[in-house]
Amino acid sequence: MFILRGFIYLFAVAGVAQLISLEGYQFQTAAEYSERTLTEHMQDFMSFFSCILFLYAARLDKKLNIAATLLGALSAMMFVRESDSLLDSYA
Predict the structure, then answer these.
(1) How many helices (H) and strands (E) would you count in the chain?
(2) How far apart are CA 79 and CA 84, in angstroms?
(3) Residue 89 reports pLDDT greater than 80
(4) Which residues are CB-neighbours of 82 under 8 A, at least 6 positions away?
(5) Rounded to 5 degrees, what angle do the CA atoms 52, 55, 57 make?
(6) Which whole-number Å values give the CA distances from 49 to 45, 60, 72, 75, in the listed order?
C-alpha cells in the first residue's frame, strides 16, 4: 500500500510539473506568469484544497486540533493573498 501511494503522489507531482513546463514551453521567452495563467489557478486551487484538508484533519483528530487549525488558517491566508486580483476586480 505504501508503494502504491508513493507512485500516486509521484505521478501527481510529475503531472503538475508537466503542466507548468508545458505552459512555459508554449510561450517560450514571451511567457508571462500573470494572474490568469494555469500556474496561478493551480496555486489557488492547491492552497484552498490544503486549507480544507487541514481543517478536516483538525476535526478528525483531537490531538492535531490546534496544529491543524493553525495550518488551515495559514493556508486560508495564503489563498486570500494569492486571490487578491480576483478580490480587487470585484471591490
Answers:
(1) 4, 0
(2) 9
(3) no
(4) 40, 43, 44, 47
(5) 110
(6) 6, 16, 10, 9
Task: Yes or no: say if 47 and 78 are a contact pair by the CB < 8 Å rule.
Answer: yes
Q: Give the total residue count for the chain.
A: 91
This prediction has a pTM of 0.75
CB 61 within 8 Å of CB 75? no
Nearest CA to 68 among 90, 50, 84? 50
Contacts of 72 (CB under 8 A, 6+ apart): 51, 52, 54, 55, 58
Cell for 78? 495564503
What pLDDT, in 10s, does the model give residues 40-50? Answer: 888 889 999 99
Mean of per-residue pLDDT scores for the chain: 86
